What we know:
- The chain has about 350 residues and is an alpha/beta fold.
- Helix content is about 30%, strand content about 20%.
- It has helices at about 15-25, 50-60, 85-95, 130-140, 160-165, 205-210, 255-270, 300-315, 335-345; strands at about 5, 30-35, 40-45, 70, 100-105, 120-125, 140-145, 170-175, 185-190, 195-200, 215, 245-250, 275-280, 290-295, 320-325, 350.
- The chain has an eleven-stranded mixed sheet, sandwiched between helices. A five-stranded parallel sheet has the order 14-13-15-12-16, sandwiched between helices.
- The structure holds adenosine monophosphate and magnesium ion (MG).
Amino acid sequence: MNTRIYCLNENQEENREYLEEAAAVLREGGLVAFPTETVYGLGGNGLNPEASRKIYEAKGRPSDNPLILHIAHRRELDSLVSRIPEEAELLMKKFWPGPMTLIFEKSDLVPRETTGGLSTVAIRMPSHPGARALIEAAGLPIAAPSANLSGRPSPTTARHVAEDLDGRIDMILDGGPVEIGLESTIIDVSGSVPMILRPGYISQEQIRDLLGACEWDPAILKKPGEDFRPKAPGMKYRHYAPKAEMVIVEGEWERAAKEICRLVSEQKKLGRKVGILCGEETRKWYTEGLVKTIGTRQREETIAHNLYYCLREFDEADVDVIYSESFGEGALGAAVMNRLLKAAGYRVIKV
Length: 351
Ligand code: AMP
Ligand code: MG
């Protein structure tokens, strides 16, 4: 398949021709990757079981891992869900459009192929103007998981999408690098107390401030086991992962850096190519290996923004092993560590 790639302009009027073409592809059951404020999404008609099957196939994604439906306006929600709890109304008023996905009881309109066989459906209204214009032009709820091959780090640029999906999908809309760089916060509002299933840019604290109560799926920062399954089916897969083996070294900054330096020397002696993922503040302590600065701990959004980008750069450099500092501080700490722990297959050394 020939994948068409178009660059989006800031001015949506100038994108009209591309958006119309992309909308037609979606209406005909094809696949279009597009930018959102979180990561790039791989869009298909969420009401068409065949389009959902194509998404799973293009990504190599297990078909029990449900897709998120993207809408452009609040009114589009009503026909997709069977009940809208009061907490959901409050959350939507405050955080939509934006990086927040809500889980509702689904209506009969939504096919089980889209929800991985579940009776609930995940819905988000993105704020990215290009994403919104595309959904509007298509006139459909767009099922859109991250536009990467299953198991690879999520794409934050159109080049990442092309690396994984060129030749497998109809079109890529290039809107430049995304703003946030981590997937949306997922909140299940179908139960008695709202529960975060995947942490993201919108934090538990912000949700508690609004609703009072908000629980937290314990699987978010722990390795899932036989008796311990995450509530979002996708969270059980080793995900977001670079090709290299990855280890997180956790502890006081200088002690952690010393341990990383020791491990790097050891690995180099074995002839292995080593990568280091560190904060700007601790960069000065590393003299060996391929060192990548993920961002500054003073502004955690820089760390979220660059995480997947850095993991892909390590892939390009063909490193054998990556040692990463831990970045669990602040409001975004849980979201960053959730991705980092999965990328590392939960390998952590505490010092
Ligand atoms: P991605 O599309 O790659 O951002 O992944 C979507 C995430 O949302 C996966 O972790 C899914 O398991 C989760 N998800 C989607 N729909 C549901 C649902 N109905 N219930 C629980 N989790 C869901
Ligand atoms: Mg994904």
